[in-house]
Automatic annotation (TrEMBL):
One of its GO terms (molecular function) is phosphorelay sensor kinase activity. Keywords: ATP-binding, Kinase, Membrane, Nucleotide-binding, Phosphoprotein, Transferase, Transmembrane, Transmembrane helix, Two-component regulatory system. Signal peptide: none annotated. Residues 285-381 form the Histidine kinase/HSP90-like ATPase domain. Its EC number is 2.7.13.3. It comes from Streptomyces montanisoli. Residues 359-412 are annotated as: Disordered. The chain crosses the membrane at residues 18-35, 41-59, 66-86, 114-147. It holds the Pfam family HATPase_c. GO terms for cellular component: membrane. CDD domains: HATPase_UhpB-NarQ-NarX-like (cd16917). It catalyses: ATP + protein L-histidine = ADP + protein N-phospho-L-histidine. This is histidine kinase.
Amino acid sequence: MLTRHWAIGWRKRPFDRALIGASVMVACGAVSVIAASTTTLRIVTGVLMLVAEAGMVVARRVTPAYLGAAAALVTVGAGLAITLLVPSGLGSVPVLAGASALPMCLPAGPVRNAGIGVVSVVFGVSIVVVSGSLAGLLAGVGAWFIATRMVEHAALQAERDRAVSLLAEVEASRQALQEAAATEERTRIAREMHDVLAHSLAGLSVQLQAIRATAAGKGAPDWLAEPLDRAAGLARDGVQEARAAVGALRTAHPRGVDDLRTLVEGFPGEARLHVSGRPGRVGPETGHAVYRAVQEAMTNAARYATGSAIDVRVVWDERELRVGVRDEGLPTGRRPSGVKGSGTGLRSMTERVEAVGGSLTAGRAPGGPGWRIDVRVPVGNGQDMAHGSGSPRPAGPQDAPPAVGAEGRAQR
């Protein structure tokens, strides 16, 4: 079995950043515990740091906003307690971490501004109490600055996510326009060839036959009649070839399975292509149905799972081609792009695939978050296979995509 693997568009994932943040919190907790003066105080400091870390985990992963806000406030409170109990420790780190997470859990407007202000003032006053200097109020200013920067970053991320979704929409529309323009141009050329070349050759054939008949009627020698016969035959063959060329020009050459690699490479977000198995042969209509299904699935992921990585898996069998497109769900703290589809994308994909003898299933991905679309089409010989295409060279072996019932985001 041939195998090759492509991983396109990789970026550092939110999980990696969360792991770094947790490591920093653990390190700060260790420093604070060591800085505590008594064993009891060390135990209390360690527990408070664990509470602070648990609050951050809940604040960034729990969906209800009020629970996330409560968890962020727990982190801030634990950090303030560590700051007061162990002034030489690093209790300010959990406070700043909670202050950065709190705005994301509060609705925009007065409520968010009030929350940021209260946390900043309390933190500044706590530092003043610990240090005995009014310069400690600058810590409150730092907390306010970090919180507002997080709000700005979230707004920038939302605009970027929307831009990625719009770019995916624009690219799909651009390809459709290119195909329509190419088809129109081929039709124009075919019409010109038919009107000029084919008609001219047909007229030439008629004229040659008339000359041959005239020559025969006047008793022309064979050495003159034979070239006329050959010329007339060539003219007739030219007419047939011109008509065949016109028919070929009128026939569209749509994108197919071979073009999936280009599709994934050109996707504006994070996407990976995995191919396994020995490539078979599929016809142009079948390949185009697969290509359009993958394109629509990736565009849907950009709309509704904005910021998620997308995996496209192509699995070749002797009798069947299976293609699965899966996203990882909406990342924590992110919102859908807000770009709405027509509402008929899933139905259109299903009808297109079923028209070539295949099947399409869609639904929530098994064993984890996200959405999955699976396409199965036949591989083999037949009328549609006469000018079939293969596939991008395959990747490491993958399991067959499971069938998933259409549910959840069926409005796609």
